[in-house]
Design goal:
4-stranded antiparallel beta sheet, 11 strands, 0% helix, globular
Length: 118
């Protein structure tokens, strides 16, 4: 019923760009905060970027100035524009939705692989 489906991952050279999409369905998207997380092999999951229902954004220090999170409520879709990619950005990227109620992030996607070659 509730789904978050990531797309747009792939292999890119260092310095390149990639745009991830997260298509949401089954919940009231416009009132949810959305976020992108990533997890690299052997590392903990980390918050990359988040955008609130009123379009406030925050970013991990490691991606600030390079990544941009956005959302299109008419399309029930969140995006992550990734520029100036570095090999250390290599990870599985997940989108997540936060209804700001009892739990932090209620829904999670399956993830999309981003690989940045040096």
């Amino acid at each position: 019923q509730v789904q978050l489906v990531e797309s747009g991952g792939g292999l890119v050279q260092a310095g390149g760009s990639l745009r991830l999409s997260c298509a949401a369905s089954g919940f009231f998207f416009s009132v949810y905060n959305m976020a992108w997380f990533r997890q690299a092999p052997g590392k903990q999951r980390e918050l990359v970027a988040a955008i609130t229902s009123d379009y406030n954004t925050k970013y991990a220090d490691s991606v600030k100035g390079r990544f941009t999170i956005s959302r299109d409520n008419a399309k029930n879709t969140a995006y992550l524009q990734m520029n100036s990619l570095k090999p250390e950005d290599t990870a599985v990227y997940y989108c997540a939705a936060d209804g700001r109620r009892r739990t932090d992030y209620d829904y999670w996607g399956q993830g999309t692989q981003v690989t940045v070659s040096s």
